[in-house]
Design a protein that fits this description.
The complex is a heterodimer of chains A (205) and B (217).
Chain A lengths: L8 E3 L6 E3 L8 E3 L6 E4 L5 H20 L3 E5 L2 E5 L1 H10 L3 H30 L7 H11 L5 H16 L3 E4 L1 H16 L17
Antiparallel strand pairs in A: 1-2, 3-4, 5-6, 5-7
Chain B lengths: L6 H4 L1 E3 L6 E3 L16 E2 L6 E2 L6 H21 L3 E5 L3 E4 L1 H11 L2 H30 L6 H14 L5 H12 L1 E2 L3 E5 L1 H19 L14
Antiparallel strand pairs in B: 1-2, 3-4, 5-6, 5-8, 7-8
Helix pairs in contact in B: 2-4, 2-7, 3-4, 4-5, 4-7
The chains are: A alpha+beta (205), B alpha+beta (217).
């Protein structure tokens, strides 16, 4: 294996076509002429801005988990639920598989993703690679498809409409925190961290 | 169009994880994804480096078939029980959609229908089509097939919607004897179906759509 491949080449991951990388102007998107996928888009956000967004997302995530999401009322009896309340309920109701899927996709992986991004971007802001950079970037790549907070927001909406038929429904701060989190996730979906690989290793000193 | 060079012809490999362009070794079967032993590692990120994902056709078929088998009980068995003082009501995926349509909001019913029925069915048909056409080295509509794959990859995880609805309602509706919602086995099968279809679309290698086509453009 030869590592001396030219850096300015880029290979389309969907159709294996090789291109020379070109510099993009703001708003520009490089599209693969063969399979029409997006090769690259202009990156609006620098690491410092991304870090700020990730920290905001982390704060929202804490709020989304600390506060109840929805409260139901029936004849003066009220019952609110948090994310973990829901996971534990599934665990006790013989649906452990669902409890695990929910815990992983709505809690552990999103949290891990934000912590990883925070760690990587903290150092990227200083222009260097974070300690453990390569391994953490690979981990991030594998965790990415399994975070589903935005699906949960839609699920909560459907649940509210369904519950509204029989109960008094009170939306709690948790759902607003989740909604705000979804906005951030959408903002972040165009972010491409490949450029971080070009940063130098941190000095050992 | 045929002037666009492909990495496999130039003796290059693009790392799946970090995108690094690497020179590949000619005639190494492991790099084609045939062998099960470890391929070479990417010099930059350390991820396995292969020309094509390993055993892509076989593993995608296997995962897709498994997902399809689980999708049957997921639809036949009820996913949620609503119990109140005087009656017990078991809902399947479809009856949940119908109930939402009739009593609540048709708009949301359409969304749930899409997430729980249309998206999984679309995944099954699209992936099966991509697999058979790629295995036959078909030159048929490659751009459209490539787009279909990316579409499936993009929307796949939204199917988890119904699972979250059941989970949230089970956590919420707990008023002892007055009213309760409990998950039923259907939701477990459905959750597993979604996970398996996600693995299936990940194990399919979209570059295979463009390999050795019988008719070139």
């Amino acid at each position: 294996m030869d590592t001396g491949a030219p850096e300015q080449l880029v290979i389309c991951k969907y159709c294996d076509t090789v291109y020379r990388r070109c510099r993009l102007a703001p708003g520009e998107v490089a599209e693969c002429p063969r399979c029409r996928c997006e090769l690259e888009r202009y990156q609006w956000l620098n690491p410092a801005v991304m870090l700020a967004l990730v920290l905001t997302a982390l704060l929202l995530f804490v709020q989304a988990n600390v506060w109840p999401i929805v409260t139901l009322g029936l004849n003066g009896q009220y019952n609110g639920v948090r994310l973990w309340g829901m996971i534990i309920a599934m665990w006790h109701e013989d649906a452990a598989v669902v409890a695990v899927i929910t815990a992983v996709t709505l809690f552990f992986f999103p949290l891990l993703k934000m912590l990883l991004l925070g760690w990587l971007l903290w150092f990227a802001r200083l222009g260097v690679r974070a300690p453990g950079f390569a391994r953490l970037m690979v981990l991030l790549h594998h965790v990415n498809p399994w975070t589903m907070s935005e699906v949960f927001v839609l699920g909560a909406l459907v649940s509210i409409v369904k519950a509204h038929l029989y109960f008094e429904v009170v939306a709690d701060p948790g759902i607003y925190a989740y909604a705000a989190l979804t906005v951030l996730i959408t903002l972040f979906s165009g972010v491409d961290l490949r450029d971080l690989w070009d940063m130098p290793e941190r000095d050992a000193t | 169009m045929s002037a666009l060079p492909r990495a496999i012809d130039l003796g290059l490999i693009g790392c799946r994880v970090c995108g690094l362009v690497c020179r590949s070794v000619v005639g190494d079967a492991r790099l084609d994804g045939d062998g099960l032993d470890d391929a070479m590692a990417c010099p930059r990120c350390g991820a396995a480096l292969r020309r094509r994902k390993s055993a892509s056709f076989a593993s995608t078929w296997a995962l897709l078939l498994a997902a399809f088998l689980l999708y049957i009980p997921a639809n036949v068995l009820p996913i949620m029980r609503t119990a109140s003082l005087n009656d017990i009501d078991d809902n399947t995926i479809i009856s949940g959609v119908v109930e939402l349509w009739v009593k609540g909001s048709p708009g949301l019913a359409v969304i749930v229908f899409c997430a729980s029925i249309v998206v999984p069915m679309l995944k099954f048909t699209v992936l099966a089509t991509l697999l058979t056409s790629s295995q036959r080295h078909s030159g048929w509509a490659p751009v459209q097939r490539a787009k279909l794959y990316r579409f499936v990859e993009l929307i796949g995880y939204w199917s988890m919607l119904d699972v979250f609805v059941v989970a949230l309602l089970s956590g919420l509706v707990r008023f002892n004897v007055l009213s309760r919602v409990e998950p039923l086995p259907g939701v477990i099968f459905f959750g597993l179906t979604v996970v398996l279809t996600m693995f299936a679309s990940m194990s399919f290698d979209p570059r295979l759509i463009w390999d050795d086509r019988v008719t070139d453009e």
